[in-house]
Description:
- The chain has helices at 10-16, 27-48, 74-85, 100-109, 153-156, 193-216, 237-245, 309-315, 326-341, 357-367; strands spanning 55-66, 89-96, 113-117, 129-136, 141-148, 169-175, 178-186, 224-229, 248-250, 268-273, 290-292, 348-353.
- By secondary structure, the chain is of the alpha+beta class.
- The strands form 2 sheets. It has a 6-stranded mixed sheet, with helices on one face. It has a 6-stranded mixed sheet with strand order 5-6-7-8-10-9, with helices on one face.
Amino acid sequence: xxxxxxxxxxxxxxxxxxxxxxxxxxxxxxxxxxxxxxxxxxxxxxxxxxxxxxxxxxxxxxxxxxxxxxxxxxxxxxxxxxxxxxxxxxxxxxxxxxxxxxxxxxxxxxxxxxxxxxxxxxxxxxxxxxxxxxxxxxxxxxxxxxxxxxxxxxxxxxxxxxxxxxxxxxxxxxxxxxxxxxxxxxxxxxxxxxxxxxxxxxxxxxxxxxxxxxxxxxxxxxxxxxxxxxxxxxxxxxxxxxxxxxxxxxxxxxxxxxxxxxxxxxxxxxxxxxxxxxxxxxxxxxxxxxxxxxxxxxxxxxxxxxxxxxxxxxxxxxxxxxxxxxxxxxxxxxxxxxxxxxxxxxxxxxxxxxxxxxxxxxxxxxxx
Length: 368
């Protein structure tokens, strides 16, 4: 549960000295935020009920321009923190060069949470981005591996792609019986023929690097999770198949689910290596526990654009007369304004089984 001190009545923190993140929040904003949090918590409760001592809730979320956009209201940070706190380990893409937003988020999440990030990928193609992992200290721990995956001359000889545009970030974790590594990706965007070819080359070179590392025994673990914003379209089917042919599998429960806020594409993915003891938890019907969470069902809902009229008009820098055109204001609210509050991507998640002791003991008994 995040830190809610800012949402207390003034008398509370005047008397007790609670630390505040947003000391200038007014009563109206506090009430609106609390109401939004109650709706959001109700929506997230379906995810939270999946959490047990034997599993780990793993998520991925591209949080739009996290650190650069100037439109986020105070309440938006509470909604982002609440969403992240429903999970145990979250890979985040599009954290920008400044860590202002990340610092606010961590203050709201509280001391029970920590993060690791990589350096900014410089240059125009890097888009001043970082990858990050946020994790619940009580549920998962860092396990000694952290680094960036870079390509080398022999691997990229005679190839157009020399490095991935945003550097992949690999980090090891330990939870229960399981140690595993996550590789946080944000691949080249776009749906033109050239974009598809470039993205395919990025993936091919990354898989070639993996194959070489396996051959030389350089991987810290064979339990790998490729995670992030792959920018895949339906036309990337050949590239997806290439990943699966190299020994990774996708989560069936996520197949075909749109992950962008416009609900048109499945950009965000998980790919896991196959291992008898590295498994996704299933429900009683044998369905993998995984999903896509749409925060706009609960906050910044479709019909709430009038609630934020003044905020939008104050922030708007375009030429349309939004003050006198509700239809235009509503369109602006849905795109891009509320996406700049939360994100233009939805978080995706699955439950990783972290206790295979029964299966292990049965197999050893059968082998004796």
